[in-house]
Model the fold of this input.
Amino acid sequence: MDPLAALSKIGHAFFARDGVRLAFGKRWDGEIIHISQASRGSACGCQCPAKNCGRKLVARKPDSDMAHHFAHAPLTAAERASGIAPSCKHGNMTALHHYAEQLLNSRKSLVLPPVQATCGARTRTIRQAKPFVFDSAMLETMDGETIPAVILQKGDDRMQVEVYVTHRCGPEKRAKIAGAGISAVEIDLSALSRDTTIAGLDEAILTSAPREWIYNRRAAHVGHELERIARQEAAAAEERRRNQIEKVKAAYASARQRALGSDWQESPQVQAVTAAGDAGLLDGPSVGDGYFTVDPRVWKAGILCDMVPRFLGLTPLSVIGEFRTRGWINEQFASRSQNEDSLLSDANLPNGGAEQAVVRFLRSLAVKGVVEDTGWAWKQTQGRSAELHQRRIEQERAHREAAQLAVRLASLKGLGESIALLGSDVERQGFEIASWMEHAPDGQQSLKQIAMKGDAAWQALKGSLATTLAVLKDESVQEADDLGLPVRGALKTMRSIHDSRAAQRKVEEEEAERLQRLERMETITALSISWIGDAHSNWLEAPHSNLDGMSPREAAARSGEYLEIATRLLRSFQAELIKKAKWVDELEREASKLLPRADMLRLYMTAGDPELPGLVSPTVHTKDEQTMRKCLALLRRRYGKR
Done:
């Protein structure tokens, strides 16, 4: 029995375990034996199977758990001097090739991979995988310019078989095989477990291990046909693509022409930016015009307008989204596949579409200090914000001044027209309000210039015009000037009317004053009679210091204010008389106790008393309790107590 075939019966692992690299040796008679078949030490009589080595091997079979294996014998002094390596890397592979040759010669059958031709993404299967029956197998013999692991022979045809464990057949060898036109298969044992048994190795080599064609004549022929078809299709595709490129160019040129020809001056955004004094930011070159449906000045103005209210800034993507809602994006180029985007590039259209055009504009604004890239969004710079704030203040002031100027000019014109309408038809002939506004009454400033200045001179002019209008409308009697308006005769007429009315009013006022004077005199007289009785005559005619030396009657005739003062004085005098009467009655009651006779009592009360100041009677002297007590004390001293 074949020594190698005998190995399959003992079930020993073909590959050495535990990292052992050499499990086979070439016996002195040329046969490949496994370490399990060798005698211990140098008595094994084996050498390295590798053709480029052939050095003596030593069978190491320790009693420990270390795996048995072959090792190269120590180098002799001559071998070391000649530079021979202590060991080689090809012994195991040579043994494997020997085994494959013996196995294939024994079985005479090998499963071949499917025959397929591939060109790019196109694959054509010529034949499915199937067993190949051959006549013989030959080990590592020069075949053309290569030495394959095994050569299979069937009649006059031959096929090369390569076995791949650690190193795949290289490009140079593959090229030589294809150049020789020899069919060759590579069997991949790289994934085979190192514990695989001989039976497992047999199955892997013959049927189950992955395998591929290094070269197959039929596959090469079909491959050439596929390449020819691919070239034809590529040429047709290139022609279609050139047509598509031309269509894209034409579509972009048409879109660009429409965008640049669109009306931009009526755009609210452009007007807002222009009004803010930033029209210069909209000028300059632009790219990607055909990606938009509006003039570049419009979408640039849109970015500037949207930048202000957005405190957190904006991104090119958000700008495109906003533009799409406004219909500013040319949807023909907005959502394109990767292939279509490459068409844009081949057509030499601006890269990046509308979004990249927005980015370029933002970058140009950044160079001018208008915006800055924060890394996640574009925002207005602080300097720009401060500048816009100052502009708004100045614009608001200018708007206010313009509005005030318009109001003043309208007021001047309105007053002039209203006054002129009140003049006679004769005076109004040839009158023009515009010419009148240009009239300069002081020879220096016209009425229009005075109104435009809006200073104190305008306030005075407006007041004069208002007075003239009020006089003509009979709402004022002030002195008025025609101020160059055709109303001189109308003013003269109104002045005559006012003078006549003033004279009439004066007569009426004098009569009313006389009646009021009489009414006030009658009022104070009636009050004095009612409040103080017989004493009213003397009181009405007596001068009083509180009435500036006038009598109550004279004061009441003077004015209502004096009437009020006289009335208060009368009320005070009334209170004094009431108080006096009380104490006079008290004096008379006490005196009646001393003077029982009525005539004596009456004489006492009315006769002058030499001991009283002014020789007045007790009735006249008594005003209060003190004066009453004084009179009573004098009476008692004369008549004694009773």
Observations:
- Confidence is low (pLDDT under 50) at residues 1-14, 16-20.
- The first helix runs from residue 3 to 10.
